[in-house]
Amino acid sequence: MGDKFSNMIRFIYTNRQMPKLSPHIDSSIEGMVPGVINFPILNCDDATTTNWWKIISGEPKRLLNNGGHKEGSANYTYNCKNCELELEESVSFQNNQVHLFNTSNWHSVDNNSGKTRMVFSFLFKSDLKWEDIVKEFS
Length: 138
Prior knowledge:
Blueprint: E1 5-14, E2 20-25, E3 27-28, E4 31-32, E5 36-42, E6 48-57, E7 61-64, E8 76-79, E9 84-91, E10 99-101, E11 107-111, E12 117-124, H1 130-137
Antiparallel strand pairs: 1-12, 2-8, 2-11, 3-4, 5-10, 5-12, 6-9, 6-11, 7-8
């Protein structure tokens, strides 16, 4: 089972200064991240929604991160700021809900609480497929 996980972990947060994570798909130094196991840590409740999106039109862009080519960080991010998107699903994860999360689908986060919300993530290796992750871990 340990051979399925990347060498990276992440703490993801939103707060009053940065309440939203715009639609994106996740990447790491290995490439695209097919999924994660998320552990909600702080203020994960109905005041924050995770949204999944479908691209209707437009071309997603692969952009170099502000940090550039730092050791241990993702070198690039995918975003779709100039795309037309359609909301497919919204959910609020709770503090007591550890969950598998498909990070290779377009998703966003809206934190409407005014409080810091934090999630800890174990990343799966980039060469895995989401369907295989679901078979093994659900």
